[in-house]
Design a protein that fits this description.
mainly alpha; Helix Hairpins; 75% helix; globular
Length: 212
């Protein structure tokens, strides 16, 4: 009986939960001595759970995700600015690709159901993950690129990234370098364009279904 209930749960829920853990549990864990290892586990969970939202698992996508997971684990044990930039950069590119795939899946879906809505939410949250990774790259290269009032930890970077994504902008943190400012514009526009496109897709499909 329990197995049947588990089978009814949308597969994408695993990625949804893993991203929420990264956003909300990650900052709390950052206060512990084991933050480096736990952050690695959270990142790995997101990579693994990404398989659950992809409908057509091509060889290229499988190889891409395996590569991303492997490099994330290997580079985590190699300290250095270069390795951090490579790891964050590759992860950001992979999650951007996954977000694009989610948008295409939503566009191809014939009807709006719980899975489609959940995929849409996950896509938005993934943009925030990408923003966190890209901001991390900038901070690793130039610690003064973003004014975080000395709090250059995962918690602050996640907070700054999602505040920028949602265009709330409390003003407590701000980009200082040209690249950081350009990235903040890109993140803000990406969030707004994503919401506009997804809402257009969903409203269009609901309208088509009603007409039918």
């Amino acid at each position: 009986m329990m197995i049947k209930h588990i089978q009814k749960v949308p597969k994408s829920i695993y990625l949804f939960i893993s991203i929420l853990m990264f956003i909300f549990a990650g900052p709390l864990i950052a206060l512990t001595p084991f933050k480096a290892y736990i952050n690695l586990i959270l990142y790995s969970f997101i990579f693994i759970a990404t398989f659950s939202v992809i409908e057509k698992k091509t060889t290229f996508l499988k190889s891409l995700l395996y590569f991303g997971l492997t490099q994330n684990i290997v580079l985590a044990f190699i300290e250095g600015t270069t390795t951090s930039v490579i790891s964050f950069g590759i992860s950001a590119v992979i999650f951007l690709i996954i977000t694009f795939i989610l948008i295409m899946q939503i566009a191809r879906s014939k009807q709006i159901n719980n899975n489609v809505i959940l995929d849409a939410i996950i896509g938005y949250l993934l943009i925030g993950v990408v923003a966190t990774l890209l901001n991390s790259v900038i901070i690793v290269i130039n610690p003064g690129a973003i004014n975080l009032n000395g709090h250059t930890n995962l918690s602050t970077i996640i907070y700054y990234s999602y505040i920028t994504l949602t265009t709330i902008g409390f003003g407590d943190f701000s980009p200082q370098s040209s690249i950081a400012r350009s990235l903040s514009i890109f993140i803000g526009l990406s969030g707004q364009l994503y919401l506009t496109i997804i809402i257009a897709f969903i409203v269009g499909k609901v309208s088509s279904a009603n007409k039918s």
